[in-house]
Write a structure and sequence with these properties.
The protein has a single domain, classed as Na+/H+ antiporter like fold (Up-down Bundle), CATH 1.20.1530.20. The chain contains 15 helices and no strands. It starts with a helix and ends in a 7-residue tail after the last helix.
Length: 318
């Protein structure tokens, strides 16, 4: 267990530093948000391009991983949405948000730093595949269902057109496309250009963690406790279990990728979850769920990694 805490503790110490920096007014929260924009628009895209460059396509894409992580995520999204809509009887936008909170990971800001400490360089390939699932499958589905419900059944083809247009401008999506093009064409980037991209990439992990910590300042957990508990338990418990089950049931793949899929699923929901809540009129619920899930994830991630190490179900941790 001490080995696992040696991996997870530094990650959450950086998050705590970000929280203290904002809470103590050492840094304004809007500056920390700007750092988050830097990570999403520059550091993470640079990380993906640097990782794809010079690699064979077979090293970059693993069908079993995509099915395991994507399948587990979509199953949990469906469970969250259907349970909230038809058992709890909430509105469709509310149900979409609860399904989203249970199934959409903070892959770039928490999942990747954890996997990097745990697995080393293979974590980047897992990050790329997780983001492909989230951007190409999960995000369009959420926006399609949420926007059409929020606008009283607005034509879904029109909604989908807006979603696709937005995805085409997404820096992460553009980086994945550029990286795949480099991998397929086997083009090698000029040394100075690659060095600049690599330098940006190195800032992604620690900056993302600092931003997450700073973003938690000021969030409130009052009210909506039952819904919040459902979302948080779905994200931190049900989602990792669903991905684990998919990895277990599907044909074997590299044990490092098996561990990576489960470790990414253990991370809390995406950092812009509250913005989705604002979009559909439930910002308070999403912000509270994000804060609680992120705070508790230190315990759940450490516990999940300890179980994987103790049982060695996928072999010993690297």
């Amino acid at each position: 267990m001490l080995d696992i805490l040696a991996i997870t503790t530094p990650i959450f110490l950086i998050m705590a530093t970000g929280y203290i920096a904002v809470a103590a007014k050492i840094m304004p929260q809007n500056v920390v948000r700007g750092m988050g924009a830097f990570v999403m628009n520059f550091a993470l895209p640079a990380l993906l391009i640097a990782s794809f460059s010079g690699r064979d396509l077979n090293e970059v894409l693993h069908g079993t991983f995509l099915v395991a992580y994507g399948g587990g995520s979509l199953i949990v999204f469906a469970i969250g949405l259907l349970f909230t809509r038809y058992i709890v009887r909430k509105s469709m936008p509310n149900a979409v948000l609860q399904g989203l909170g249970m199934s959409f990971c903070n892959s770039g800001f928490i999942g990747y730093p954890v996997a990097l400490q745990l697995l080393g360089p293979p974590a980047v390939m897992a990050l790329a595949m997780c983001m492909m699932i989230e951007i190409l499958a999960m995000m369009p589905l959420v926006l399609l269902l949420g926007d059409s419900a929020a606008h009283d059944g607005q034509n879904r083809l029109a909604v989908l057109r807006k979603v696709v247009t937005g995805m085409a401008r997404n820096p992460i999506m553009l980086a994945i496309v550029a990286g795949l093009a480099l991998s397929v064409s086997e083009i090698t980037l000029p040394g100075p250009l690659f060095k600049a991209i690599d330098m940006l990439a190195l800032t992604a992990g620690p900056t993302a963690l600092f931003v997450i910590g700073g973003g938690l300042v000021g969030l409130s957990i009052r009210g909506m406790r039952i819904d919040m508990a459902r979302i948080v338990s779905g994200k931190l418990i049900l989602h990792p279990l669903a991905v684990f089950a998919m990895v277990w049931l599907l044909p074997p793949m590299d044990p490092v990728l098996q561990i990576a899929a489960v470790s990414f699923a253990c991370s809390p929901m995406l950092s812009i979850y509250a913005l989705f809540g604002q979009r559909y009129g439930h910002e308070g619920l999403c912000a509270a769920s994000l804060m609680v899930a992120t705070s508790l994830s230190f315990i759940t991630i450490s516990t999940a990694l300890w179980i994987l190490e103790t049982t060695r179900v996928f072999g010993p941790l690297p």
